[in-house]
Amino acid sequence: MLFVWKSCWSSLHKRNYLPVKLGFSIFLLGLAFRLLFSQSSGFSEVSEAPFLGKIVKPIAPLKGKCDLFSGDWIPNPAGSVYTNESCKYVFDHQNCMKNGRPDTGYLYWRWNPRHCELPQINPEKFLEMMRNKTWALIGDSISRNHVQSLLCVLSKMPCHEEVEHAVEVYDDQEGRSKRWHFSSYNFTVSVIWSPFLAEAAIFEDINGVSTHEVELQIDKLDTKWSEQYQGFNYIMFSSGKWFFKSTIYYKNNKILGCHYCPGKNLTELGFDFAYRKVLRDFFNFIVTSNHKGMIFYRTSTPDHFENGSWFDGGNCKRTEPVKEGVLELNEMVKIIRDIELTAFEEAAAKASETGVNLRLFDVNPLSLLRPDGHPGAYRHFHPFAKDKNAKIVNDCLHWCLPGPIDSWNDLLMEMVVNGKDD
Ligand SMILES: *[C@@H]1O[C@H](CO)[C@@H](O)[C@H](O)[C@H]1NC(C)=O
Ligand SMILES: *[C@@H]1O[C@H](CO)[C@@H](O)[C@H](O)[C@H]1NC(C)=O
Ligand SMILES: *[C@@H]1O[C@H](CO)[C@@H](O)[C@H](O)[C@H]1NC(C)=O
Ligand SMILES: *[C@@H]1O[C@H](CO)[C@@H](O)[C@H](O)[C@H]1NC(C)=O
Ligand SMILES: *[C@@H]1O[C@H](CO)[C@@H](O)[C@H](O)[C@H]1NC(C)=O
């Protein structure tokens, strides 16, 4: 039997089994990590696309009780529920602890909605509800960032249980789309990389090196997700940031114009035009889809480059959350957000007629308050080991894991399992 030691600690302590004076022992965590790691194999038989089981009971929307998304970050002395050593799903670029980020204060906060309680996700209860179910997170690399957080949080189980951990059952070879299976719950989690939600030819490698403008079919939804769509019980979509990139727009397979393509003699249509069009089609598809599960649209999260942009030395060196009103969304993200909220509002009205369970997962405002949650220079392994003045391209867009987006799972738990919503 395997234990995840941090979670064991509180229950051991309560039951007085051990004079646990060590606190949270990095050593034991390391041991658990190695044991967990050596346990992963099998399950390759579970590799087909998952299909929709019966939804046991539709979750009735509750009357306006509480807006989970307005609140404050408050100190949380317990800290994160996993570490760089207890969770193996974290990608190196977001593994700030492993990469040597020196401060740890950013781990000791939790999201506290202003008018209601937000308990920490209960992995056991969540997994129990997810028996025979499938989740998909669909979008860009922030969705990938989130899936790792979700897997880490769910893999942490109470002490007397066998550790439940997800086994990877699919990988698209590029690490962009993946699928995991929690065998004892027959629960499947997928992440599908579809940064535009529409069909796009992308000439960019995983390091962001691009050889050609994106070619976006603004009138075609991406079959990468649309063909599997009915097979998922729960879906969280997101998009946004990729629309900023140099892109040629196609409609009916003909070039319509572009966004940022100097020298190409094409009409500049603006990224807002394209995002508006794609989201309109996307939501039309969703609200008329007769989908029986639960569908979230997650709003785009802000970046926090200060004193410059990502390409000219901008960084994110803050070590604490800020209060509401201290930071503002940059103009581009503001535009994205307006488009998302407008499109969602229209869609939600239609969804209530067609019976599709559509929810907004509005993490943009609470994310704005966490400039301290990004890897910054610690996207790289010990970036200043050789030269403490090294010039580093900072990542002030993705989120450290563990880190602020672990709270997203608490919000999910409230909305999905406890049926809370605003
Ligand atoms: C985890 O992070 C700590 C420092 O935060 C570091 O000492 C340790 O080596 C890291 N472990 C791994 C496996 O990266
Ligand atoms: C899960 O699926 C199995 C096999 O189809 C079935 O026996 C079991 O009752 C299902 N459990 C739930 C909670 O739906
Ligand atoms: C697992 O869940 C899927 C639905 O997601 C269902 O089709 C399948 O029968 C389940 N398998 C078992 C062994 O319960
Ligand atoms: C740019 O496009 C317009 C309209 O398609 C065309 O008339 C013009 O000759 C083009 N200019 C160049 C430099 O190719
Ligand atoms: C930005 O630059 C100003 C002045 O050089 C400095 O005081 C501030 O701390 C910097 N902010 C960040 C986040 O690095």
Descriptive report:
The protein is of the alpha/beta class. It has 2 domains: 1-45; 58-418, Rossmann fold, CATH 3.40.50.1110. Helices cover 25% and strands 17% of the residues. The protein contains 9 helices and 13 strands. The chain has helices at residues 5-15, 26-38, 123-129, 141-154, 223-226, 271-287, 331-354, 364-368, 406-416, and strands spanning 71-75, 109-113, 134-139, 167-171, 178-182, 187-193, 198-201, 214-221, 234-237, 247-251, 254-259, 294-298, 357-361. The strands form 3 sheets. The chain has a 7-stranded mixed β-sheet. A 4-stranded mixed β-sheet has the order 7-8-10-11. The radius of gyration is 22 Å and the shape is globular. Residues 1-63 have low confidence and may be disordered. Bound molecules: 2-acetamido-2-deoxy-beta-D-glucopyranose (5 copies).
Features:
disordered N terminus, alpha/beta, 2 domains, four-stranded mixed sheet, Rossmann fold, 422 residues, TBL_C, TBL_N, seven-stranded mixed sheet, TBL, binds 2-acetamido-2-deoxy-beta-D-glucopyranose, transmembrane
